[in-house]
């Protein structure tokens, strides 16, 4: 390892806390020298560079790849005007245009937009909005969220409280978090019909939970059709229709967390479209800016917005410093326009078929529990925990970057991956698992 690289990595280990990592026993990290298209340039430790396909889209957000000329140009254009202004008492064209576009492409009832710094914050705002809505309607006792087991909604306190309380990443905080209402996890499998026996049993259980807690619950919150960081777990769109009916029956709001599923990842522009239902509140983030800057949004219906605005306080009680940052809004608008200017649905379908073909052989390997693909998401679930350093190294030797977690080796590749690159991703994961078993 060259002296300069060694120094940077030493400084990193002494100074920086990485996600879900120990400071005293950190996981290995690799120094990025550059990135272009779908490839990372990683320092090889000897003064050279190793290229690897980023099969993670930088945690699911870099859908157009790195150094995309359209997105680069949007940022250059905006920074020549101004990079940031406060959103209290001021506004600007990028925020207005982005809000118009989001209202245009999201489900019809959603007419109002609140910009946030990150996906987790958008969930915070959505939960806060639901609570204010119920207070404005005179239901002061409705202070809890109803959700399902297996979900993940972020790492700040309100989102942590609606993540799986037992098998999720936040069980350490039990007792400190708001105690929410949890129903059973939906039956696995995207293709289950509404009359599937297991789904019928699940629906009855959810109806029972909703009825028991009808006077306590303000809203239902779920990730539509794919639970992300909770386990990359697909479930039937019919379950969303059940939840929409329960919300309507009991006067709950329905919040859909589309931070991971939005902008085409599951094969429709938004996950809710698989079910043909509309939420009252929607959260989007991650791919919103094409991975360039942190930005998220919460959208809601006119009923929700006007009810809260006429209630106690007369306002939504939230206001981040970097809310509606002009640079982020400009690149987000460019990213959405770029996505919609292409036949993205066909491309996601091609990626889906490529991942299915590439990962299928892994199903026959010892130690593999399941292989599943939904849209541009491919997952190999092992029978036990992943050896993270070994698996990362094994896949990287085959020219692909992944970041496994728990018992999952998975990929969410950029939409601009070629068929050959998708095939390389599938083969690298399959071969690395075979090597380890």
Automatic annotation (TrEMBL):
Keywords: Aminotransferase, Biotin biosynthesis, Cytoplasm, Pyridoxal phosphate, S-adenosyl-L-methionine, Transferase. It catalyses: (8S)-8-amino-7-oxononanoate + S-adenosyl-L-methionine = S-adenosyl-4-methylsulfanyl-2-oxobutanoate + (7R,8S)-7,8-diammoniononanoate. Substrate binds at residues 59, 152, 286, 319, 403. PROSITE patterns: AA_TRANSFER_CLASS_3. Pfam families: Aminotran_3 (PF00202). The keyword S-adenosyl-L-methionine applies. Its cofactor is pyridoxal 5'-phosphate. One of its GO terms (molecular function) is pyridoxal phosphate binding. Its EC number is 2.6.1.62. The modification N6-(pyridoxal phosphate)lysine is found at residue 286. Pyridoxal 5'-phosphate binds at residues 119-120, 257, 320-321. Pathway: Cofactor biosynthesis; biotin biosynthesis; 7,8-diaminononanoate from 8-amino-7-oxononanoate (SAM route): step 1/1. Catalyzes the transfer of the alpha-amino group from S-adenosyl-L-methionine (SAM) to 7-keto-8-aminopelargonic acid (KAPA) to form 7,8-diaminopelargonic acid (DAPA). It is the only aminotransferase known to utilize SAM as an amino donor. Homodimer. This is Adenosylmethionine-8-amino-7-oxononanoate aminotransferase. It comes from Kribbella caucasensis. The gene is bioA.
């Amino acid at each position: 390892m060259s002296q300069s690289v060694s120094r940077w990595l030493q400084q990193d280990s002494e100074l920086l806390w990485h996600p879900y990592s120990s400071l005293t026993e950190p996981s290995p990290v690799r120094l990025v020298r550059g990135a272009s298209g779908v490839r990372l340039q990683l320092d090889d430790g000897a003064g050279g560079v190793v290229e690897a396909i980023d099969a993670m889209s930088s945690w699911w957000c870099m859908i157009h790849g790195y150094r995309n000329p359209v997105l680069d140009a949007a940022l250059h254009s905006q920074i020549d005007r101004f990079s940031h202004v406060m959103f209290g008492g001021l506004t600007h064209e990028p925020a207005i245009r982005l809000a118009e576009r989001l209202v245009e492409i999201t489900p019809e009832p959603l007419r109002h937009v609140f910009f946030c710094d990150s996906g987790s914050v958008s969930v915070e705002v959505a939960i806060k909005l639901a609570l204010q809505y119920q207070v404005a309607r005179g239901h002061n006792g409705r202070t809890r969220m109803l959700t399902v087991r297996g979900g993940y909604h972020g790492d700040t306190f309100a989102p942590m409280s609606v993540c799986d309380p037992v098998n999720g990443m936040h069980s350490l905080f039990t007792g400190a978090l708001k105690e929410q209402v949890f129903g059973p996890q939906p039956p696995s499998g995207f293709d289950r019909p509404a009359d599937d026996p297991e789904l019928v049993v699940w629906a009855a259980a959810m109806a029972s939970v909703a009825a028991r807690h009808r006077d306590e619950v303000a809203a239902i919150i779920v990730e539509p059709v794919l639970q992300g960081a909770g386990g990359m777990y697909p479930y039937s769109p019919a379950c969303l229709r059940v939840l929409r009916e329960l919300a309507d029956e009991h006067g709950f709001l329905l919040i859909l967390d589309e931070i991971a599923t939005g902008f085409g990842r599951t094969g429709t522009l938004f996950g809710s479209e698989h079910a043909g239902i509309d939420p009252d509140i929607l959260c989007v983030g991650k791919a919103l800016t094409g991975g360039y800057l942190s930005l998220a949004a919460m959208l809601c219906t006119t009923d929700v917005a006007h009810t809260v605005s006429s209630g106690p306080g007369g306002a939504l009680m939230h206001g981040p410093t970097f809310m509606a940052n002009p640079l982020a809004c400009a690149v987000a608008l460019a990213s959405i326009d770029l996505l919609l200017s292409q036949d993205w649905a066909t491309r996601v379908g091609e990626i889906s078929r490529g991942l299915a073909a590439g990962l299928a052989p892994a199903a026959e390997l010892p130690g593999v529990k399941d292989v599943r693909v939904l849209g541009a998401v491919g997952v190999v679930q092992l029978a036990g925990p992943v050896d993270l350093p070994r698996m990362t190294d094994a896949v990287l030797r085959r020219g692909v970057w992944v970041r496994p977690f728990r018992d999952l080796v998975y990929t969410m590749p950029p939409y601009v991956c070629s068929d050959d690159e998708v095939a390389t991703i599938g083969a690298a994961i399959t071969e690395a698992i075979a090597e380890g078993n």
